[in-house]
Write a structure and sequence with these properties.
There is one protein chain. The chain is mostly helical and 185 residues long. It contains 8 helices and no strands. Helix 4 packs parallel to helix 6 and helix 6 packs antiparallel against helix 7. The longest helix is centred in the N-terminal third of the chain and has 38 residues. The protein starts with 5 loop residues before the first helix and ends in a 25-residue tail after the last helix.
Length: 185
């Protein structure tokens, strides 16, 4: 078991507190935005730009299925006009479809190599796929490509540099147990 330092624990606790406050505040704003866009779509149901805005709103609130539904509508109405690849990859990642998400993000990044959110998302996908070196490289590229990287992105990159979890038992008080030593032959 890996035991982080007290500084790391405080940083993570602070980040989670700030994130939860932001999430609770943003939740109401999300519903208001969706209601406004849906009202506009009732007047103009074939407006691909409105469907794209709705897909972005759903992605921002991590509503993967709703986002994918809107992306399909955008691609039906205006194929190739809007950069839907990132939103599709992000939504697939949210849904746990890491292989598909990576393939979609690879394709999107081949034409948008400095897209900060796509790089960060692919970094997260690669981490879930247990590919830490590639994950860290994408997170570094996202931080480098961003004019002002978010605290969340910087935190992810910092945590990616943590030493690996110990591969041996740990006592409940955090002291490492002694492992039997293999005799030299």
């Amino acid at each position: 078991m890996f035991l982080p330092s007290s500084t790391q624990l405080l940083a993570v606790a602070f980040f989670l507190t700030i994130s939860s406050v932001h999430f609770l505040h943003a939740h109401g704003a999300y519903h208001e935005l969706v209601e406004r866009i849906e009202a506009e779509l009732k007047k103009s149901p074939a407006d691909a730009a409105l469907h794209f805005k709705l897909a972005e709103a759903h992605a921002g609130h991590e509503e993967a299925k709703a986002c994918l539904k809107e992306i399909a509508e955008v691609e039906r109405l205006a194929p190739g006009v809007y950069p839907t690849g990132y939103l599709r990859g992000f939504s697939l990642f949210l849904g746990g479809e890491n292989e598909q998400a990576k393939a979609v993000l690879d394709q999107f990044l081949s034409t948008h190599p400095d897209h900060v959110d796509a790089l960060a998302t692919r970094g997260r996908v690669l981490a879930k796929m247990d590919r830490p070196a590639e994950s860290t490289a994408d997170l570094q590229a996202a931080v480098k490509a961003s004019p002002s990287p978010s605290g969340e992105l910087v935190m992810e990159l910092a945590l990616a540099y943590q030493p690996p979890f110990p591969r041996h038992p740990v006592r409940p008080n955090g002291c490492f147990t002694s492992l039997p030593q293999k005799a030299n032959s």
